[in-house]
Amino acid sequence: MDRNENTYHWEEISEACVQIESLFSLVNELVLREKIFYDSKFSEGWKSFERLNSLDGTLLVPVDIPTFNPIVAASRNQALELLCVTDTMRQHQKENLIGYQETRKSPHEHFGQVVWGTAGNFGRSSFLGAHYVPHPIRSFLLEETGFLKPGVDMGTDVQEWVNEERVKLFAGLTPLGKMHSFELILPPLVAEVLESSSNLSEVLDASLELRQKYKKIREWIGEYQAAIENEDPASVSNFKKTLELVSKDLETMRKGNELGDTSVGISFLSFKLPTPKLPDIRRFWGIRSALNKLLLNRKGEKALTRLLSWLDCEGEREVELIKDHFHSQK
Fold this sequence. Notes:
Layout: H1 15-32, E1 36-39, H2 44-47, H3 50-53, E2 60-63, H4 70-83, H5 87-103, H6 109-128, H7 136-145, H8 154-171, E3 180-184, H9 188-195, H10 203-213, H11 215-229, H12 233-254, E4 269-272, H13 286-295, H14 301-310, H15 316-327
Parallel strand pairs: 1-2
Antiparallel strand pairs: 3-4
Helix pairs in contact: 1-10, 4-6, 5-6, 9-10, 9-14, 12-13
């Protein structure tokens, strides 16, 4: 969007980039969320996978969210005001509303799917009191408009912390000026899932199988979230201290080396760098040990190559498009 010109425009991006970001998000959510709530009126995506459909009521929880509930409507309208940051956006939203009321069709269909759809999901999120995990394109809208998160979500925050620590882990031991060739440092759960899958159809099963392995981390995140919501400063301080200790574990490994610079936009973006010698984590116990093990998963180079082949993106042009997309997120 262009605030100076008081308008907005669309930019074309590779379908593979959206697929990659969506896959990364899905794997993380399936492994690290205790429950995933969704509006039962929009269940086609979840129910199209037999393995996920069988989890209704356990991991996946369908909820009938009334569209015109006062809480839903108020939150949706407030979100629309914050998302429509230019006159053109406000005008197109007004035209969509009138068009849908008269013909059940929106004249600015893509705008409606992105902007109106995002606002609608914030309405549902408010109704449930649950965090909203957006589609990558809607996520970009939230970043562009500076939309503030309505509350702290430790599930998302811990995932971002893990990915940023891994960038430092794999980039920190490189002498200045030695960075070359772009690559994605995969989120650790994604790397593990892809390495245990032989095709895309196995990714869901592989993700669900990891839930038991990372149960301790999932429960710890839930306790952290509860401490935040209960406004318990002593407990929150202890959770933060755990993350700080894990960061220091990795910093100790990097100490004494001449560090290069690295840019982090999307948290799994970096450059191809020599793989560092990993520290001995056997002396750690409990959640500290679990977090260290998660962080020290392999970079996922082979897994990424496998994923690109599944998405038919092995050609030089496709790889360049993916490279440019993630590089622009810095």
